[in-house]
Amino acid sequence: MTQRQLHLLLNVQSAGIHPAAWRMPEGRPHGFLDPAYYREIGALAERGLFDAVFLADHSTLWQNPAAGPGWALDPLVTLAGLAAHTTRIGLVASISTTFSQPYPVARAIASLDHASAGRAGWNVVTSWDERAARNFDIQALPPREDRYRRAAEFVGVVRRLWDSWEPGALVADAACGLFADPARIHAIDHAGAFHTVRGPLQLPRTPQGRPAIFQAGGSEGGRDLAARHADAVFTAQADREASRAYRADLQSRAAALGRTDGGPRVFPGVIVVTGRTEAEARGKRARLDALLGGEPALLARFARALGVPVQRLALERPFPEDLIAPAVAANPRQGFADALAAQLADRGRTVRDHLEQGAIGQRSLVGSADAVADALQQWFEGGAADGFVVMCDILPGGLADVVELVVPRLQERGIYPREYAAATLRERLAH
Predict the structure, then answer these.
(1) Higher pLDDT, 159 or 337
(2) 41, 87, 212, 324: which has the fewest Cβ within 10 Å?
(3) Is the Cα torsion angle 74, 77, 81, 87 positive or negative in sign?
């Protein structure tokens, strides 16, 4: 029996996950506008045998532009360019079901799958930012339940459009003059609560049959959507037992829906700052933190992000219990809110520990390559993850550290591949 293998995906931020990344001497403040920057990152990730690069997206200027580059080029444009300069790595774009329509999404992702020879993925998001809604002639976001009802119908329509050409419908028989067989191309005639779509798609079946589907919701609606449709799930998890329970819940929901593939693969996000020694890794983090103003500034940022008074926070004490509920309620993303609640409720952690965590509701690993490999292996072998969405402190340098230092250690332990196991993204995710 083939040993189960750990998967890695890369979440590509504009300059890196650390807000001071663009200010470092090796930082790339203009990289988010440069296709060559993404090509360099894609080549590095492919060398490290990452399954895919993933581009998040925001349909608004979502952070203070004075603070740094928190946005990027359009994901589909960027990934189409990257497809021409890579051969194996998957290409995953985030597209909102709240601000889009099924037909153009089905066409765009299918086009990327054809252009990349079967490496495209769609990260299904329902959006959470009210400011983005007002960029799409929507004065207010619909309630979360309605957004997920729309998303469930939307994804179902997209999948039917991808299937509207049967295998072999594209004949291209020059001798008899038959290009495509109309009998194998079908309208879908969908009429639902949110969408009416005739079909069929104007593109033939893609190299993967259908592109890979990713999803990141932590709410009930998000979990149901993932269990029914997703090949893989991005999740915010800071606690191993909580992540194990989350994974088991998705597997149970998928089985109840009749899926026989074990359900979606679960990829918790993890921030990695690594080096040859722990001191080297911590030195990298310290230099980044110093650019923000050191510990007092980090404490103020932490309090501001949670909407709590900084005067109530003492570095050597746990987070105040009476502030947990309002801090969690201020986070509109259910998965992050759940992870944050577990993180802040841990009475064994001080506020200083939360600062060292580096991101709200996310797991952070700052240490030697061996320590990082140990931590990933423990979650993977303990049933808490099928792989990880890696976020690097600074790009591309932080990614180079992971590829050159952490990946070889995972390979030595026999839990990470030494070559790509399959040509298409969906096939690899199934392993």
Answers:
(1) 159
(2) 87
(3) positive
The tokens describing 240, both together, are 């191993």
Is residue 169 predicted with pLDDT exceeding 70?
yes
The pLDDT value recorded for residue 412 is: 97
DSSP code of residue 233:
E
Give 213's strand partners: 122
Residue 167, both tokens: 């295998």
The secondary structure of 93-128, three-state, reads: EEEECCCCCHHHHHHHHHHHHHHCCCCEEEEEECCC
89-146 confidence digits (pLDDT tens): 999 999 999 999 999 999 999 999 999 999 999 999 988 777 888 888 888 888 888 9
Dihedral sign for Cα atoms in the order 410, 415, 418, 422: negative
What span, in angstroms and rounded, lies between the C-alpha atoms of 58 and 72?
Answer: 9
Question: Can you tell me whether residue 387 is helix, strand or coil?
Answer: strand
- Whether the CB-CB separation of 366 and 241 falls below 8 Å is answered with no
Q: Which of 159, 167, 210 is nearest to 188 (CA)?
A: 159
Count of beta carbons in the 10 Å neighbourhood of residue 383:
15
Q: Are 268 and 236 in contact (CB under 8 A)?
A: yes
> Does an H or E element contain 235, and which?
strand 232-235
Taking the C-alpha atoms of residue 50 and residue 89, their distance in angstroms, rounded to an integer, is 7
CB contact set of 269 (below 8 Å; sequence gap of 6+): 11, 234, 235, 236, 237, 362, 363, 388, 389, 391
The two structure tokens encoding residue 399: 């990614």
Residue among 295, 358, 302, 349 at smallest CA distance from 330 = 302
135 half-sphere exposure, CB direction, 13 A CA radius = 14
Strands 170-173 and 178-180: antiparallel
Q: Torsion angle, CA of 221/222/224/229, rounded to 10 degrees?
A: 140
Amino acid at 100: S
In this structure, the dihedral spanned by the alpha carbons of residues 403, 409, 414 and 418, taken in order and rounded to 10 degrees, is 30
Residue closest to 274 by CA, chosen among 393, 416, 132:
393
Q: What is the pLDDT of residues 220-237, one digit of tens each?
A: 888 999 999 999 999 888
**Which one, of 34, 55, 48, 410, lies nearest residue 214 by Cα?**
55
Q: Is-above-0.70 flag for pTM? A: yes
